[in-house]
Amino acid sequence: MKKILSFVVLILAVTCLNAQTTHTVYCELLGAGTFGNKLKVSVDFGQKGCYKFSDNTLVDENGKDIKFNSMVDAMNYMSKLGWKFLQTYVFISTTLLDKSKSYEYHWVLSKDVTNDDDVTKGFSTKVQYEQEHKK
């Protein structure tokens, strides 16, 4: 009887451990703006259907764009939600007419999740907000 009970406990323990397996997901924070101004930041998960920068812009609970002081500010926001920094790079473009520069910041992040619903837990993008608040 003790062997059967031990076996059942072992099977339950293994089942519980398998149910909690995690996998790593990645995203890219894209910050756009001119030097010295607040940034609008979008999130790219590699998902289908969101091709414009504004579709994936981070928004608050009212659907308004969140403006960040810097990419570090945006990273601190995402860090509180469990995201880890991996890599960064900047793309600088210059207009031909007035030689003004614009900066596009790219920060690659990762997070371990147990299910795909945890990927965007704690924040919304513009497209998510619009889908959740359809009339």
Structural summary, described in words:
The protein has helices spanning 2-19, 71-79, 126-132; strands at 23-33, 39-44, 58-59, 67-68, 84-94, 101-113, 124-125. The model has no long low-confidence stretch (mean pLDDT 81). The protein contains 3 helices and 7 strands. With 135 residues, it is an alpha+beta fold.
**Number of helices, counting only DSSP H or I runs of 4 residues or more:** 3
Percent helix:
25-40%
Q: What is the radius of gyration?
A: 21 Å
Average per-residue pLDDT, rounded, comes to 81
Q: Spans of 5+ residues with little confidence (pLDDT < 50)?
A: none
Oligomeric state: single chain
Number of strands: 7
Outline, from the CA principal axes? elongated
- The helix/strand series, from N terminus to C terminus, equals HEEEEHEEEH
Distance between the termini: 60 Å
Determine the structural class based on helices, strands and strand pairing. Answer: alpha+beta
Strand content: 25-35%
Strand order of the largest sheet: 4-2-1-6-5
Question: What descriptive keywords fit this protein?
Answer:
5-stranded antiparallel sheet, two-stranded antiparallel ribbon, alpha+beta, 25% helix, 135 residues
Task: Give a topology summary.
Blueprint: H1 2-19, E1 23-33, E2 39-44, E3 58-59, E4 67-68, H2 71-79, E5 84-94, E6 101-113, E7 124-125, H3 126-132
Antiparallel strand pairs: 1-2, 1-6, 2-4, 3-7, 5-6
Give a short overview.
The chain is α+β, with helices and mostly antiparallel strands and 135 residues long. It has helices at 2-19, 71-79, 126-132; strands at residues 23-33, 39-44, 58-59, 67-68, 84-94, 101-113, 124-125.
